[in-house]
Specification:
This protein has about 350 residues and is of the alpha/beta class. Helices cover about 45% and strands about 15% of the residues. It has 13 helices and twelve strands. The strands form two sheets. Strands 2-1-3-4-5-11 form a six-stranded parallel beta sheet, with helices on both faces. It has a six-stranded mixed beta sheet with strand order 7-6-8-9-10-12, with helices on both faces.
Length: about 350
Protein backbone atom coordinates (compact mmCIF):
# COMPACT_ATOMS: atom_id res chain seq x y z
CA UNK A 1 0.00 0.00 0.00
CA UNK A 2 1.38 3.38 -1.01
CA UNK A 3 1.78 5.80 1.92
CA UNK A 4 2.37 9.53 2.31
CA UNK A 5 6.00 8.69 3.12
CA UNK A 6 6.36 7.09 -0.31
CA UNK A 7 4.83 10.15 -1.98
CA UNK A 8 7.09 12.52 -0.02
CA UNK A 9 10.18 10.55 -1.00
CA UNK A 10 9.21 10.48 -4.71
CA UNK A 11 8.40 14.23 -4.73
CA UNK A 12 11.45 15.22 -2.68
CA UNK A 13 9.46 16.93 0.09
CA UNK A 14 8.58 16.32 3.71
CA UNK A 15 5.64 14.23 4.85
CA UNK A 16 4.19 17.38 6.38
CA UNK A 17 4.18 19.10 2.98
CA UNK A 18 2.32 16.17 1.46
CA UNK A 19 -0.21 16.46 4.30
CA UNK A 20 -0.65 20.18 3.60
CA UNK A 21 -1.59 19.38 0.00
CA UNK A 22 -3.91 16.51 0.89
CA UNK A 23 -5.77 18.40 3.60
CA UNK A 24 -5.53 21.98 2.29
CA UNK A 25 -4.34 23.09 5.72
CA UNK A 26 -1.45 25.32 4.61
CA UNK A 27 -0.50 27.01 1.31
CA UNK A 28 1.97 25.20 -0.93
CA UNK A 29 3.65 26.67 -4.01
CA UNK A 30 2.15 25.57 -7.35
CA UNK A 31 5.43 23.89 -8.38
CA UNK A 32 5.58 21.85 -5.18
CA UNK A 33 1.90 20.92 -5.42
CA UNK A 34 2.43 19.76 -9.00
CA UNK A 35 5.39 17.53 -7.97
CA UNK A 36 3.36 15.99 -5.16
CA UNK A 37 0.31 15.35 -7.34
CA UNK A 38 2.51 13.87 -10.05
CA UNK A 39 4.14 11.57 -7.48
CA UNK A 40 0.71 10.46 -6.25
CA UNK A 41 -0.36 9.69 -9.81
CA UNK A 42 2.82 7.75 -10.60
CA UNK A 43 2.60 5.71 -7.38
CA UNK A 44 -1.15 5.17 -7.56
CA UNK A 45 -1.74 6.91 -4.22
CA UNK A 46 -5.41 7.21 -3.24
CA UNK A 47 -6.52 10.05 -0.97
CA UNK A 48 -8.43 9.12 2.15
CA UNK A 49 -11.42 11.42 1.76
CA UNK A 50 -12.73 10.82 5.27
CA UNK A 51 -9.38 11.57 6.92
CA UNK A 52 -8.98 14.62 4.77
CA UNK A 53 -12.39 15.93 5.77
CA UNK A 54 -11.66 15.39 9.46
CA UNK A 55 -8.32 17.18 9.21
CA UNK A 56 -9.56 20.18 7.23
CA UNK A 57 -13.18 20.23 8.47
CA UNK A 58 -14.16 20.29 4.82
CA UNK A 59 -15.48 17.48 2.64
CA UNK A 60 -14.71 19.13 -0.72
CA UNK A 61 -18.14 17.89 -1.77
CA UNK A 62 -20.80 20.29 -3.02
CA UNK A 63 -24.45 19.49 -3.67
CA UNK A 64 -26.73 20.57 -6.48
CA UNK A 65 -30.26 20.77 -5.05
CA UNK A 66 -32.77 19.91 -7.78
CA UNK A 67 -36.50 19.47 -6.95
CA UNK A 68 -36.91 16.40 -9.12
CA UNK A 69 -40.46 15.59 -8.00
CA UNK A 70 -41.70 18.87 -9.46
CA UNK A 71 -39.37 19.28 -12.45
CA UNK A 72 -38.79 16.65 -15.09
CA UNK A 73 -35.31 15.53 -16.04
CA UNK A 74 -34.46 16.26 -19.65
CA UNK A 75 -31.49 17.02 -21.85
CA UNK A 76 -31.45 20.64 -20.66
CA UNK A 77 -31.27 19.64 -16.98
CA UNK A 78 -28.56 17.08 -17.79
CA UNK A 79 -26.44 19.84 -19.33
CA UNK A 80 -26.61 21.81 -16.09
CA UNK A 81 -25.55 18.76 -14.05
CA UNK A 82 -22.68 17.62 -16.25
CA UNK A 83 -21.18 21.07 -16.70
CA UNK A 84 -21.45 21.74 -12.95
CA UNK A 85 -19.75 18.42 -12.17
CA UNK A 86 -16.97 19.24 -14.62
CA UNK A 87 -16.42 22.68 -13.09
CA UNK A 88 -16.27 21.13 -9.61
CA UNK A 89 -13.80 18.45 -10.69
CA UNK A 90 -11.46 21.05 -12.18
CA UNK A 91 -11.32 22.73 -8.76
CA UNK A 92 -10.73 19.42 -6.94
CA UNK A 93 -14.30 19.24 -5.64
CA UNK A 94 -16.91 16.54 -6.08
CA UNK A 95 -20.51 17.31 -7.01
CA UNK A 96 -23.50 15.27 -5.86
CA UNK A 97 -27.13 15.64 -6.90
CA UNK A 98 -29.73 16.15 -4.19
CA UNK A 99 -33.26 15.64 -5.61
CA UNK A 100 -34.90 17.48 -2.71
CA UNK A 101 -38.20 19.38 -2.71
CA UNK A 102 -38.70 23.12 -2.90
CA UNK A 103 -40.22 23.44 0.58
CA UNK A 104 -36.85 23.32 2.34
CA UNK A 105 -37.79 20.54 4.78
CA UNK A 106 -35.58 17.79 3.38
CA UNK A 107 -32.80 20.28 2.69
CA UNK A 108 -32.78 21.26 6.39
CA UNK A 109 -32.10 17.67 7.37
CA UNK A 110 -29.37 17.15 4.80
CA UNK A 111 -27.34 20.29 5.46
CA UNK A 112 -27.60 19.62 9.19
CA UNK A 113 -25.50 16.48 8.73
CA UNK A 114 -22.49 18.45 7.37
CA UNK A 115 -22.30 16.17 4.36
CA UNK A 116 -21.28 18.94 1.96
CA UNK A 117 -19.33 22.21 2.00
CA UNK A 118 -21.97 24.14 0.06
CA UNK A 119 -25.07 23.95 -2.13
CA UNK A 120 -25.99 25.10 -5.64
CA UNK A 121 -29.74 25.71 -5.88
CA UNK A 122 -31.57 25.00 -9.14
CA UNK A 123 -35.16 25.70 -10.25
CA UNK A 124 -35.36 28.78 -8.04
CA UNK A 125 -38.69 30.25 -6.96
CA UNK A 126 -39.19 34.02 -6.72
CA UNK A 127 -39.63 33.50 -2.97
CA UNK A 128 -37.65 30.33 -2.32
CA UNK A 129 -37.89 28.79 1.19
CA UNK A 130 -34.64 26.88 0.66
CA UNK A 131 -32.67 30.12 0.88
CA UNK A 132 -33.86 30.79 4.43
CA UNK A 133 -32.75 27.26 5.38
CA UNK A 134 -29.26 27.77 3.99
CA UNK A 135 -28.88 31.21 5.53
CA UNK A 136 -30.09 30.01 8.94
CA UNK A 137 -27.67 27.07 8.95
CA UNK A 138 -24.75 29.15 7.68
CA UNK A 139 -24.34 26.95 4.61
CA UNK A 140 -22.56 28.60 1.66
CA UNK A 141 -24.72 28.55 -1.46
CA UNK A 142 -25.16 29.95 -4.96
CA UNK A 143 -28.23 30.17 -7.17
CA UNK A 144 -28.82 29.14 -10.76
CA UNK A 145 -31.88 31.34 -10.94
CA UNK A 146 -33.10 34.46 -9.12
CA UNK A 147 -35.43 35.39 -6.31
CA UNK A 148 -37.47 38.59 -6.36
CA UNK A 149 -35.08 40.29 -3.94
CA UNK A 150 -31.53 39.10 -4.46
CA UNK A 151 -29.98 40.98 -1.52
CA UNK A 152 -26.45 40.35 -2.83
CA UNK A 153 -27.07 36.62 -3.22
CA UNK A 154 -24.54 34.90 -5.44
CA UNK A 155 -26.45 33.96 -8.59
CA UNK A 156 -26.41 33.31 -12.32
CA UNK A 157 -29.45 32.91 -14.53
CA UNK A 158 -30.92 32.93 -18.03
CA UNK A 159 -31.46 36.41 -19.47
CA UNK A 160 -35.16 35.88 -20.17
CA UNK A 161 -35.76 39.39 -21.48
CA UNK A 162 -33.10 39.12 -24.19
CA UNK A 163 -34.08 35.52 -25.00
CA UNK A 164 -37.73 36.41 -25.57
CA UNK A 165 -36.87 39.59 -27.47
CA UNK A 166 -34.63 37.64 -29.86
CA UNK A 167 -37.22 34.90 -30.37
CA UNK A 168 -40.11 37.27 -31.12
CA UNK A 169 -37.88 39.52 -33.22
CA UNK A 170 -36.91 36.53 -35.37
CA UNK A 171 -40.52 35.48 -35.95
CA UNK A 172 -41.61 39.06 -36.58
CA UNK A 173 -38.83 39.39 -39.14
CA UNK A 174 -40.23 36.37 -40.97
CA UNK A 175 -43.53 38.20 -41.24
CA UNK A 176 -45.53 36.67 -38.38
CA UNK A 177 -48.07 38.94 -36.69
CA UNK A 178 -50.39 36.38 -35.08
CA UNK A 179 -48.37 34.71 -32.35
CA UNK A 180 -49.28 32.59 -29.34
CA UNK A 181 -47.12 31.76 -26.33
CA UNK A 182 -47.66 28.31 -24.80
CA UNK A 183 -46.22 28.96 -21.37
CA UNK A 184 -45.93 27.14 -18.05
CA UNK A 185 -48.99 26.68 -15.86
CA UNK A 186 -48.88 29.51 -13.30
CA UNK A 187 -52.19 28.29 -11.83
CA UNK A 188 -50.38 25.19 -10.55
CA UNK A 189 -49.41 25.99 -6.92
CA UNK A 190 -46.00 24.39 -7.45
CA UNK A 191 -45.12 26.89 -10.19
CA UNK A 192 -47.01 30.03 -9.22
CA UNK A 193 -43.73 31.77 -8.30
CA UNK A 194 -41.37 29.70 -10.46
CA UNK A 195 -38.87 32.20 -11.89
CA UNK A 196 -38.57 30.95 -15.50
CA UNK A 197 -42.34 30.79 -15.98
CA UNK A 198 -43.02 34.19 -14.46
CA UNK A 199 -40.13 35.98 -16.19
CA UNK A 200 -40.69 34.40 -19.62
CA UNK A 201 -44.38 35.27 -19.66
CA UNK A 202 -43.77 38.81 -18.40
CA UNK A 203 -41.11 39.33 -21.07
CA UNK A 204 -43.43 37.98 -23.78
CA UNK A 205 -46.25 40.31 -22.78
CA UNK A 206 -43.90 43.28 -22.85
CA UNK A 207 -42.25 42.40 -26.17
CA UNK A 208 -45.59 41.57 -27.86
CA UNK A 209 -46.90 44.97 -26.80
CA UNK A 210 -43.76 46.66 -28.16
CA UNK A 211 -44.33 45.01 -31.55
CA UNK A 212 -48.04 45.77 -31.53
CA UNK A 213 -48.90 42.06 -31.47
CA UNK A 214 -52.01 40.81 -29.72
CA UNK A 215 -50.96 39.02 -26.53
CA UNK A 216 -52.24 35.45 -26.38
CA UNK A 217 -50.92 33.06 -23.71
CA UNK A 218 -51.98 29.44 -23.17
CA UNK A 219 -50.99 27.64 -19.97
CA UNK A 220 -49.50 24.17 -20.34
CA UNK A 221 -47.83 21.64 -18.06
CA UNK A 222 -44.37 20.38 -18.99
CA UNK A 223 -45.29 17.10 -20.67
CA UNK A 224 -45.73 15.86 -24.21
CA UNK A 225 -49.35 14.93 -23.55
CA UNK A 226 -50.07 18.42 -22.19
CA UNK A 227 -48.41 19.85 -25.30
CA UNK A 228 -50.71 17.80 -27.50
CA UNK A 229 -53.69 19.17 -25.61
CA UNK A 230 -52.36 22.72 -26.00
CA UNK A 231 -52.12 22.21 -29.77
CA UNK A 232 -55.79 21.21 -29.84
CA UNK A 233 -56.80 24.30 -27.84
CA UNK A 234 -54.61 26.50 -30.03
CA UNK A 235 -56.27 25.45 -33.29
CA UNK A 236 -59.75 25.49 -31.75
CA UNK A 237 -59.56 28.89 -30.03
CA UNK A 238 -56.98 30.71 -32.17
CA UNK A 239 -57.14 29.25 -35.69
CA UNK A 240 -55.64 32.42 -37.20
CA UNK A 241 -52.28 31.80 -35.44
CA UNK A 242 -49.27 31.65 -37.78
CA UNK A 243 -46.52 31.01 -35.22
CA UNK A 244 -46.41 29.50 -31.73
CA UNK A 245 -43.68 29.91 -29.11
CA UNK A 246 -43.47 27.07 -26.54
CA UNK A 247 -41.66 27.51 -23.24
CA UNK A 248 -41.12 23.93 -22.03
CA UNK A 249 -39.12 21.42 -24.05
CA UNK A 250 -41.42 18.43 -23.43
CA UNK A 251 -44.43 20.61 -24.21
CA UNK A 252 -42.80 21.67 -27.48
CA UNK A 253 -42.45 18.04 -28.57
CA UNK A 254 -46.10 17.50 -27.66
CA UNK A 255 -47.21 20.58 -29.62
CA UNK A 256 -45.38 19.28 -32.69
CA UNK A 257 -47.00 15.86 -32.27
CA UNK A 258 -50.44 17.43 -31.75
CA UNK A 259 -50.21 19.67 -34.81
CA UNK A 260 -49.14 16.72 -36.95
CA UNK A 261 -52.03 14.61 -35.70
CA UNK A 262 -54.45 17.42 -36.45
CA UNK A 263 -53.18 17.70 -40.01
CA UNK A 264 -51.40 21.05 -39.71
CA UNK A 265 -48.19 21.17 -41.73
CA UNK A 266 -45.18 22.67 -39.92
CA UNK A 267 -43.81 25.12 -41.01
CA UNK A 268 -45.91 25.53 -44.19
CA UNK A 269 -49.12 26.35 -42.30
CA UNK A 270 -47.80 27.25 -38.84
CA UNK A 271 -44.33 27.85 -37.39
CA UNK A 272 -43.14 26.47 -34.05
CA UNK A 273 -40.27 27.84 -31.94
CA UNK A 274 -39.21 26.35 -28.61
CA UNK A 275 -38.13 29.03 -26.19
CA UNK A 276 -35.66 27.02 -24.07
CA UNK A 277 -34.25 23.75 -25.34
CA UNK A 278 -31.10 21.63 -25.66
CA UNK A 279 -30.00 20.53 -29.15
CA UNK A 280 -30.57 16.82 -28.45
CA UNK A 281 -34.22 17.52 -27.62
CA UNK A 282 -34.75 19.61 -30.74
CA UNK A 283 -33.40 16.75 -32.86
CA UNK A 284 -36.14 14.43 -31.53
CA UNK A 285 -38.74 16.38 -33.48
CA UNK A 286 -39.62 15.74 -37.10
CA UNK A 287 -39.03 18.20 -38.63
CA UNK A 288 -36.21 19.34 -36.34
CA UNK A 289 -37.29 22.18 -34.09
CA UNK A 290 -36.18 25.78 -34.26
CA UNK A 291 -35.29 26.72 -30.69
CA UNK A 292 -33.54 29.13 -28.38
CA UNK A 293 -30.60 27.09 -27.15
CA UNK A 294 -30.60 27.08 -23.34
CA UNK A 295 -27.27 28.19 -21.82
CA UNK A 296 -27.15 25.18 -19.48
CA UNK A 297 -23.44 24.39 -20.01
CA UNK A 298 -22.43 27.97 -19.21
CA UNK A 299 -24.76 28.38 -16.23
CA UNK A 300 -23.84 25.02 -14.69
CA UNK A 301 -20.18 25.99 -14.70
CA UNK A 302 -20.76 29.57 -13.56
CA UNK A 303 -23.05 28.56 -10.69
CA UNK A 304 -20.51 26.04 -9.44
CA UNK A 305 -17.66 28.50 -9.80
CA UNK A 306 -19.65 31.11 -7.86
CA UNK A 307 -20.04 28.70 -4.94
CA UNK A 308 -16.42 27.54 -4.99
CA UNK A 309 -15.24 31.15 -4.95
CA UNK A 310 -17.14 31.58 -1.69
CA UNK A 311 -15.64 28.42 -0.23
CA UNK A 312 -12.12 29.46 -1.21
CA UNK A 313 -12.52 33.05 0.01
CA UNK A 314 -12.01 34.43 -3.49
CA UNK A 315 -13.62 37.49 -5.06
CA UNK A 316 -17.25 37.11 -6.22
CA UNK A 317 -17.95 35.92 -9.73
CA UNK A 318 -17.56 38.85 -12.16
CA UNK A 319 -20.45 39.75 -14.49
CA UNK A 320 -22.25 38.92 -16.67
CA UNK A 321 -24.50 36.97 -14.35
CA UNK A 322 -27.33 36.69 -16.91
CA UNK A 323 -26.79 34.61 -20.08
CA UNK A 324 -29.34 34.68 -22.92
CA UNK A 325 -30.41 31.64 -24.91
CA UNK A 326 -29.22 31.71 -28.52
CA UNK A 327 -31.30 31.12 -31.64
CA UNK A 328 -30.84 27.79 -33.42
CA UNK A 329 -32.75 27.81 -36.70
CA UNK A 330 -34.16 24.39 -37.47
CA UNK A 331 -36.90 23.29 -39.85
CA UNK A 332 -40.07 24.37 -38.01
CA UNK A 333 -40.07 28.09 -38.82
CA UNK A 334 -40.76 29.85 -42.12
CA UNK A 335 -42.64 32.94 -43.35
CA UNK A 336 -46.41 32.74 -42.77
CA UNK A 337 -48.61 31.36 -45.55
CA UNK A 338 -49.89 33.87 -48.09
Amino acid sequence: MVTMRDVAKRAGVSIATVSFVLNDTKPVTPATRQRIEQAMTELGFRRNVVARALASRRTRIIAMAYPALDHRFGFSAAEFFTSAADAARKQDYHLVLWPVGNDGGELTELVGQSLVDGVVLMEVQLDDPRIEVLQRTGTPFALIGRTTTLESLSHVDIDFDTTVEDAIGYLYGLGHRRLVLISGDLDDPRFRTYGPYVRSEAAYRRVAADYGIETVVLACADSTRAGQGAATRLLRDHPETTAVVVLNEYSALGVMSGLNRLGRRVPDEISVLSLLMAPDTGALSNPELTFMRTPGPELGQLGTQALIRQLEGAAPLPPPHLIPARLHVGETTAPPPE
